Amino acid sequence: MAEISASMVAKLRKMTGQGMMDCKRALQESEGDIDQAIEVLRKKGLATLAKRTERETSEGLVIGKTSEDGKTSAITTLCCETDFVARSDDFVAAAQALADYALVCAADRGTEDILETTLDGKKFNDVLTETVSKTGEKIRVGDYTKYKLDGPGLIGTYIHFNEKLGTMLEIETSDDNVADADVMKQTASDIAMHITAVRPLALDRDGIDPETIEREKAIFAEQVKDKPANIIDKIVEGKMKKFYTENCLLDQLFVKDDSKSVAQVLTEAAKQAGGQAKIKRFVRLEVS
Fold first, then answer.
1. Are 141 and 111 in contact (CB under 8 A)?
2. Which range marks the domain in which residue 226 is found?
3. Tell me, what's the pLDDT at 45?
4. Cβ neighbours of residue 187 under 8 Å, at least 6 residues apart?
5. Do 37 and 61 fall within a single domain?
6. Average pLDDT, whole number, for the chain?
7. What's the pLDDT tens digit per position in 26-63?
8. Does 107 lie in the same domain as 137?
9. Residue 54: what are its φ and ψ, rounded to 5°?
10. Rounded-to-integer distance, Cα 125 and Cα 122, Å
11. pLDDT for res 28
12. pLDDT interval class at 129 (50, 70, 90)
């Protein structure tokens, strides 16, 4: 068996971030070959991941990143077993790397595509395996969405201070000058924050699942079944109006000024910017 020096162990530890004894054992197994020792440590990470397949991954971080030109944004989650690991340097570094991979991933959706995406000669799947090996926990990429502007507009993002909640939304504007206005950028960020806090079900009434609407109507009708028949429909209509106000983004009262709806806030900001704007889509992610 090849002699494993302290300097070799230190070198491997610096390259991989693994524990001293793990590095020593990997070097012994590879008979002093650094490259093979790295592969041994990677396999160790895969083995750890396989052992923990059934473990809950209810902790982690929401991460977002926007391209330098502001035309493309991605938001995703990296999940693990404990909050202790979620706050560790190794996990945070992997999450920051994930943001880079998510932004350049060729697909708009799909964690498998992120895992196979390559940056600087390394797939994110390799980054994930190395992090699993370092932390000893099951780690996985959770939800992932990427938006790319195909015309005038802007993308707003908001990550809550606890980094477990986040939102991304796309706003179409009448021209680039409107999109570039400071008031629009601030409003996009504010509405993203609103979505994170209030959790709308859909953009507008058309986005609510018809089955959900019928279920709510039936519940409301049951609640007032003892009322005269000629006013039941009016009562149900009023309750549904409140339901839409509470659950449709454009109808919701703005969290920073409840005298206005989100739609009114957006319209006023666009008018100040000299044009029009509308929200095209949004996504809200949560680690839980």
1. yes
2. 209-247
3. 64
4. 156, 265, 266, 269
5. no
6. 88
7. 788 888 887 787 777 766 664 455 555 566 788 999 99
8. yes
9. -90, -5
10. 8
11. 83
12. confident
Beta strands (DSSP E) in 83-199 are: 118-119, 122-123, 140-148, 153-159, 165-173
Helices 20-29 and 34-51: angle between axes, nearest 10 degrees: 120
Residues 137 and 191 in one domain: no
Is residue 34 located within the same domain as residue 83? no
Domain count, the chain: 4
Query: How many C-beta atoms lie closer than 10 Å to residue 27's C-beta?
Result: 24
Dihedrals phi, psi of 55, to nearest 5 degrees? -70, 150
Structure tokens at 150: 């195909």
Tracing tokens 């509405």 back to the chain, one arrives at 191
> Does residue 242 lie in a domain region?
yes
Contact 66, 276 (CB under 8 A): no
Q: Are 64 and 168 in contact (CB under 8 A)?
A: yes
In a domain, 127, yes or no: yes
Q: Tell whether 23 and 138 lie within a shared domain.
A: no
At 161 the three-state DSSP class reads: coil
> DSSP secondary-structure letter at 205?
G
CATH code, domain carrying 20? 1.10.8.10
CATH of the domain at 133: 3.30.479.20
Phi and psi for 231 in degrees, rounded to 5? Answer: -120, -5
Q: Where are the beta strands (DSSP E) in the chain?
A: 59-66, 72-80, 118-119, 122-123, 140-148, 153-159, 165-173, 253-254, 257-261, 277-286
CB of 102 within 8 A of CB of 78?
Answer: no
Other CB atoms within a 10 A radius of the CB of residue 237 amount to 11
